[in-house]
Amino acid sequence: MIPTITAFETSPDRGKGLARDMRVRWALEEAGQPYAVRLVSFQAMKEPAHRALQPFGQIPTYEEGDLVLFESGAIVLHIAQTRAGLLPDDAHARARAVAWMFAAVNTVEPPTLELVVARFLEGDQPWTEQRLPLIRDRIRQRLGDLSARLGEADWLDGAFSAGDLMMVGVLRRLQASGLLDEYPNLAAYVGRGEARPAFRRAFDAQLAVFAGRPATD
Ligand code: GTB
After folding, report:
1. Strands (E), the chain
2. Residue 92: φ, ψ to 5°
């Protein structure tokens, strides 16, 4: 059974692969699992049919037979647990890879989302200019710790795993902020993730959604 995922019909990033369907696409490509994509409009995401799949009216979702999943981390974990290639066989190494998945979404991603909110949703508020340096420093704390742990290694814990996939997915959203470049080993780590053939296939597939569309789309 080929799983179906959902993605933005019109993504604000116009194909830079920053929306969270990218993590799911990448995981499916790493696992060699063909998949279908259903594109949804912002309006359709808020309608009952989509909320039955995703209670918060968001993408991505994952449908496979009678399994329906939401939350990109849970979807990637499911793919990793049911296909080879994304989690180590050794039970302890597997548990550590899952810990890195949680670290990505639970420890590193939250301060990065504060930056998005401050810049794009609260950018016109009087407190934003004062708040931004505080948020950037909170992100630096996480990046500094992550950078120290990664050191000169290629991946966070031995071979590439779903933990790296999630972490790279989170860090990619910081590229435009310049913060990632303050930590050359993290910038190189993201580069290694993006150079993986499975990442390239996933990226090209999501980019193709926007090919040939006018910029006003
Ligand atoms: N915790 C959930 C998960 O991990 O699956 C969060 C899902 C989520 O935030 N989905 C976003 C969404 O559907 C898309 S990824 N938003 C619409 C809504 O809430 O109404 C967030 C995102 C959106 C756009 C860009 N971009 O264009 O750069 C990047 C990331």
Report:
1. 4-8, 36-40, 61-64, 67-70
2. -70, -40
- Quick one: pLDDT at residue 213? 74
Determine whether the shortest distance from the Cβ of 20 to ligand 1 is under 6 A.
yes
- Ligand 1 centre to CA of 21 (Å) is 8
Tokens of 180: 């990632």
Does any ligand 1 atom lie closer than 6 A to the CB of residue 174?
Answer: no
Residue 199 has pLDDT above 70, yes or no: yes
Contact 82, 143 (CB under 8 A): no
Residue nearest to atom 17 of ligand 1 (CA): 58
| Domain extent at residue 36 | 4-85+199-208
Q: Residue whose CA is closest, atom 16 of ligand 1?
A: 58
Same structural domain, 37 and 78: yes
Query: Is the per-residue pLDDT at 216 higher than 70?
Result: no
On whether residue 122 sits in a domain, the answer given is yes
Instruction: Name the closest-CA residue to atom 30, ligand 1.
Output: 19
Q: In this model, does residue 212 exceed pLDDT 70? A: no
Q: Is 9 in the pocket of ligand 1 (CB under 6 A)?
A: no
Distance in Å, CA 19 to ligand 1 centroid: 6
**Residue 76: which of 116, 28, 16 has the closest Cα?**
28
pTM higher than 0.85: yes
Our count of domains for the chain comes to 2
